[in-house]
Request: fold
Amino acid sequence: MQQARCYLLGERAVVLELEPPLSLSSQQRIWGLCQQLQHDAQVEEVIPGMNNLTLLLRDPQHHAQDAVERLQRWWEESETQQPESQRVEIPVVYGGAQGPDLQWVAEHAGLSVQQVVALHSSVDYVVYFIGFQPGFPYLGGLDERLHTPRRAEPRLSVPQGSVGIGGSQTGIYPLAAPGGWQLIGHTPLALFDPRQQPPTLLRPGDSVRFVPQKEGIC
Reply:
């Protein structure tokens, strides 16, 4: 089991942070602990992250230090959880105006554009958690050859539906927003719709497969 560090964050939050590296088994333990803590009377909200978990307390003045000690113990006693999941295929137009950084990613990796597309679309990714924006999936499983630094200067606006790579992860922008990931393609699928229930297309534990659309491959 990965070692965990628990500490107070601000006036209301308690954080459990795992030592690297990131692993699916540890993330499954976080999902299980998150499910357990949602029913705790002292907890107002549970926020799972990548290799971490944050609790917002109802009465931090009286329960903060106790929550730190209990969270450490709960982690040691926690079990993995494999939530109900779905496999979602994401159609992607790679390259061109909709994937302006694809060529740069290929050059950084020492690969052709076609090889980058083939590698990126050959994996069943796992949604580790949803964050940054409503419905933004942080996906685990990116081939190491495609690990790419974020842009030195983030874009002021990344179009909704953009598929990008940031470090060792790949993800999809559900909404237009500033962002520094390398953009390699675009999907027409809506990942977030507040009129739907649930409003997000993807959930932690889901499996994602990117499907190239031929007309968009450079």
